[in-house]
Specification:
Elements (H helix, E strand, L loop, with lengths): L3 E5 L3 H13 L3 E5 L2 H11 L3 E5 L7 H10 L5 E7 L3 H9 L4 E5 L3 H32 E2 L2 E2 L3 H13 L6 E4 L6 H10 L8 E5 L5 H9 E2 L11 E2 L1 H4 L4 E5 L6 H13 L1 E2 L8 E2 L3 E6 L3 H6 L5 H7 L2 E4 L10 H16 L5 E2 L1 H9 L5 H15 L4 E2 L6 H5 L3 H6 L6 H19 L4 H8 L3 H10 L5
Parallel strand pairs: 1-2, 1-3, 3-4, 4-5, 8-15, 8-16, 9-12, 12-15, 17-18
Antiparallel strand pairs: 6-7, 10-11, 13-14
This protein binds adenosine-5'-triphosphate and magnesium ion.
The site of adenosine-5'-triphosphate has 16 residues, from β7, α7 and α15.
Length: 454
């Protein structure tokens, strides 16, 4: 495939010479005599490379470059600048030019520069293709992940989605349990049916029963008309029982009945209604422990635990963090109208090291907050909340280092506590000693020992 080159120069002779030469080299060539007319050709001709002069009447090379970048055009620009105009060439490089050649140049010299650019261009294209491939592999319904643990979950979902088997999804808060439930629905034959989610912990016990099962008119004081419950509403689709660990025992019995014979009965009704609902349930609790404690029925537990999907906490699959960061950046840029393009390496390191007790939801909120606060177009350490900085605290680092010596570890902790106390009391040693619960004399000794400057 022959490459397209657009030559932009106000000197007619140069345009002619370059056109002839480059055509002989196998390129497709178009020419323009200034930036403004070049822009029109960029649209119609779609050049891979643009060779442009800097100084031209109407629109110069740097203006052209900036306009192209603003439009998101990806052509590789090489600037041709006259001897003595090095400053302009540098300015052009800053504006995003790939390289420059100094006029007057020999044809071979120009060709070499073009070849070099071409090589980079094909590398870039390969990279882009590779990235797209990785992305394709890392996206599953609304979830993004590249860790082995999550990919295994993706495969499991794809395999079992079509079965009506009840699935139990467990994992800490914010790991993505609801997204797993939605994916199970989205990948199944029921995907065009309803997906109804109910949080069993958020509805008062006395209302939950009629929410789930519906009621007949007059079944209780407030029941002024017949009402279908969520099971009926989810007919032909999926009912997602979130926080199933919070379901009261009385309702657990009723749920078990639905699971066993696919029928529900509205409160106050004497008829059973047939329903075709797939149940998925989620909990952040340890249901085996709940069973042992008598708070969750064992028979129901076995009935819903047929397929168990455990979503691991984010700190156990840190390789998913970069992907999620980039995803939330993009998402928020669209939603909030911000234009944050990157996260600084230091900030990224903090995000990678933090333990994320609130998992993906906490990461999502952290990124959003940082984007709102950020003053530039790159997120930096200062945009991250204190708790993430504190996670780098020397005591934690020491404790996770594997060091077993009590003596060495105590010294690290002691020094940190003393520095903190002195900071808090603005250097007041008497107050600091009180906070540390040591004598004033001991404090003075330790300040010297640890060489703490005040
Ligand atoms: N793999 C992922 N890719 C993209 N977004 C994710 C992923 N996992 C979680 N999220 C996002 O994180 C947030 C929390 O996810 P979700 O509500 O599914 O978690 P959960 O486990 O149900 O939490 P909770 O226990 O608090 O109910 C959501 O905004 C969700 O979109
Ligand atoms: Mg949830």
């Amino acid at each position: 495939m022959s490459r397209r080159v657009l030559v932009v120069d106000d000197e007619e002779n140069l345009r002619l010479v370059l056109k002839t030469f480059l055509k002989r080299q196998g390129y497709q060539v178009e020419t323009a005599d200034n930036g403004a007319s070049a822009l029109g050709l960029v649209e119609s001709f779609g050049p891979d490379f643009i060779l442009t002069d800097v100084r031209m009447p109407r629109m110069g090379g740097i203006d052209l470059l900036q306009t192209l970048k603003a439009k998101g055009n990806e052509a590789t620009v090489i600037v041709m600048s006259a001897y003595g105009n090095l400053d302009l060439a540098i300015e052009a490089m800053k504006a995003g030019a790939y390289d420059y050649v100094q006029k007057p140049f020999k044809n071979d010299e120009l060709l070499l520069t073009l070849k070099k650019a071409e090589e980079r261009e094909s590398l870039r294209r390969e990279n882009r293709a590779l990235r797209q491939e990785v992305m394709r592999d890392s996206v599953f319904e609304e979830m993004l992940a590249k860790s082995d643990a999550m990919r295994l979950i993706f495969r499991t979902i794809a395999k079992v989605a079509d079965f009506k088997t009840t699935a139990l999804i467990t994992g800490e808060s914010g790991v993505g349990k609801e997204l797993v439930a939605r994916a199970l629905h989205g990948r199944s034959e029921r995907k065009d049916g309803p997906f109804v989610a109910v949080n069993c912990g958020a509805i008062p016990d006395n209302l939950l029963e009629s929410e789930l099962f519906g009621h007949k008119r007059g079944a209780f004081t407030d029941a002024s008309s017949d009402r279908a419950g969520l099971f009926e509403q989810a007919d032909g689709g999926t009912l997602f029982l979130d926080e199933i660990g919070e379901l009261p025992l009385a309702l657990q019995v009723k749920l078990l009945r639905v699971l066993q014979d696919d029928t529900v009965r509205r409160i106050g009704d004497s008829r059973d209604l047939k329903v075709n609902v797939r149940i998925t349930a989620a909990t952040h609790r340890d249901l085996t422990a709940e069973v042992a404690a008598g708070r969750f029925r064992e028979d129901l537990f076995y009935r819903i635990n047929v397929l168990h999907i455990h979503v691991p906490p984010l700190r156990e699959r840190r390789e998913d963090i970069p992907l999620l960061i980039d995803h939330f950046l993009q998402q928020n840029n669209l939603r909030l109208g911000t234009s944050i393009r990157a996260v600084s390496p230091d900030a990224r390191r903090l995000l990678m090291e933090y333990s994320w007790p609130g998992n993906v939801r906490e990461l999502e909120n952290t990124i959003e907050r940082a984007m709102v606060l950020s003053e530039g177009d790159v997120l930096t350490e200062v945009d991250l909340p204190d708790r993430i900085h504190q996670a780098r605290d020397p005591i934690r680092l020491q404790l996770s280092s594997g060091e077993l010596s009590i003596k060495k570890t105590s010294r690290v902790i002691e020094e940190v506590l003393i520095r903190r106390a002195l900071q808090q009391t603005k250097g007041n040693r008497t107050r600091a000693a009180q906070l540390l619960e040591i004598s004033h004399r001991a404090l003075l000794y330790k300040i010297k020992d640890y060489q703490i400057d005040l």
